[in-house]
Write a structure and sequence with these properties.
The protein is of the alpha+beta class. Helices cover about 35% and strands about 35% of the residues.
């Protein structure tokens, strides 16, 4: 779970400071499995959004909590928070899977 929090914290900071570029891609390469990176590239091409965030834009806040573990994986629940121009707050909740052996993030999906 700590690696998920480290990744989301660093990734969101980079997007906020400099946008999607080499540093954001380097973070993806360091924290995400090759298969997930390929899956995200396909998802982003179809949806025209950031696959890690499952949204456009950069959230104003984020929170990561432990959800579950088993079968060699750990699941973390990530809550991303945006505030729109009308000061309305919006949340995106994600389930993020990490491989216990490699500690790499191997799955990201919208939480039910």
């Amino acid at each position: 779970m700590d690696r998920v929090a480290d990744f989301y914290g660093a990734y969101i900071d980079v997007l906020y400071d400099s946008g999607r570029g080499r540093l954001a891609d380097s973070l993806r390469e360091h924290y995400l499995t090759p298969r997930l990176r390929a899956d995200l590239a396909r998802w982003e091409k179809t949806h025209h959004k950031d696959g890690v965030l499952r949204a456009k834009g950069v959230p104003a806040a984020w929170k990561v909590v432990y959800n579950d573990s088993g079968m060699g994986h750990c699941w973390s629940r990530v809550t991303l928070t945006w505030e729109d121009s009308g000061n309305r707050v919006h949340h995106m909740r994600l389930l993020v899977r990490s491989d216990l052996e490699t500690q790499l993030i191997s799955g990201i999906q919208i939480a039910a």
